[in-house]
Amino acid sequence: MKRFAIAAALLLSPVFSWGQNFSDVLSQIEQNNPLLKALQTEARAKAQEARTGLAPADPEVEAGYLWGRPSDMGNRVDLNVTQTFDFPTAYYWRRKVSDGNVDLAQLEYLAQRREVMLEAETLCIEMVYRNALQSLLSKRLEMAQTIESAMAKKAALGDASHLDLNKAELNLLSARRSADENEVEHEAVRSQLARLNGGVPVQLDADCFMPAELPADFETWYAGVVSPEIRTLERREEVSQLGVKVEQAGWLPKFSVGYVSERIAGTVLQGVGVGVSIPLWENHGKVKAAKAVADAAKARLETEQLQFECSMKTLYNRAVKLVALVKSYRESVEAADSMELLQKALSSGQLSLIDFIVEQEVWYDSAEEILASERDLQVLCAELRSFESR
Fold first, then answer.
1. Under a CB-based contact definition with an 8 Å cutoff, are residues 267 and 74 in contact?
2. What is the pTM of this model?
3. Do residues 233 and 91 make contact, with C-beta atoms less than 8 angstroms apart?
4. Where are the domains of the chain?
5. Is the CATH number 1.20.1600.10 carried by domain 2-57+99-251+289-385?
6. For residue range 152-184, what is the model confidence (pLDDT) as tens digits?
7. How far are the Cα atoms of 132, 166, 180, 271 from residue 177, in angstroms, in the given order?
8. Three-state DSSP state, 352
9. Sign of the CA dihedral 228, 230, 234, 236?
10. Are 77 and 264 in contact (CB under 8 A)?
11. Are 215 and 225 in contact, with CB atoms under 8 Å apart?
12. Per-residue CA distances from 355 to 40, 149, 165, 173, 349 (Å)
C-alpha cells in the first residue's frame, strides 16, 4: 500500500508546462507524413506555375503568295516577321507579382504544415496522458484485485458476507472496465499517430510531461509570434496591390518590330516594320477590378489580424488560469491522499467495504480529473507554441 502511495504521488507531480518535447516523434512524422509530402509537391507546382507568363509574346510569321493578272505582271511574295513587346514597366510588375505568388505557395504550405504538426503534437500529448492514466488505473485495478481476493477468502471462512464479496467483485469489475476502456483509447491514439507517420508505428512511452512555465507577459510573447496564416494574408494583400500596378501598366502602349519583305516581278523590297498598339477599350474596368480585389484583401487581413490576436490572448489567459487550477487541484488531492490509512481501517474492520470503495472512488476520480486538466493545459500550450518563430 505504501508503494501505491508513492506511485500516486509521482503521478501527481508537477506536469504543467509551456511545451512538451516530442522532437524525435515530430521529426519522424514531418519526414514520413504523406500529406506533407503531397503539399510540398503542390507548393513546388504552384511556384513553377507562378514563373510562367513572364516572357514576351511569341513572334509572328506571316507569308503571302499572290498571283498576278495579267500573267505578265508576275507573282507577288510577301514575308513578315513581327515581335510584339509590352511596355517595359509591365514586365517589371509582372515579375513582382510572380515573386509574390512563389512566396504565397511556400506560405500556404507552412500554414498547412503547422496544422498537421499541431495535430501530431496534440496526439503525442494524448498518448502521454493515456500512458499516465493507464499507470493510475493499473494501480487501482491491482488494489481492487487485492480487496476482492481478501474478501473471497474471508467469505470462504465465514468472516465476510456474500454482500461484501459482491461489492468487492463489482469494484473489481469497475476498475477493470476503466483500464480496458483506456487501453482502447490508447490504441486509437497510437493508430492515429501511425497514420500521420505514413503508417509507421510510433513509440512513445513517456507518462509525464516536462515541467516548464508559461511566458510571464502576453504582449512580449505575442510580439514574437509568427502566424503562417496571417503572413499568407499579408503577402496576398501585397500581391493584390502589385496586381493593380500590372493592370495600370496595361494602359501603356505596346510595340511591335519586325522584318518586312515583298518580292514582285523580280523586284525585292525589304526593311523594318514598327508598330504601336494603343489600348483604348481592351483593359476597360480592369484597374477598378484590381483595386477592388486589393481593398478586399486589405480588409480581410485587418479582420484576421484582430481576430488572431484576440484568439491568442484568449488561449493564453485560459492557459494561465488552468495552470493555477491544476496546481490547486494537485495540492488538494495530495493533501487528501489517505489511501494507506483507508486500507488499514478496512483491514482492521474500522471501515466498511462500501465506505472504502466510495472513498477510493472519490480519490481516483480526482486524480483522473487532474490528469485530464494537465492534458488540456498541454494542448493549449502546444497551440500557442505552434505560432512561435522557430
1. no
2. 0.80
3. no
4. 2-57+99-251+289-385
5. yes
6. 887 787 776 778 788 888 888 988 999 999 999
7. 17, 16, 5, 95
8. coil
9. positive
10. yes
11. no
12. 60, 18, 14, 17, 11
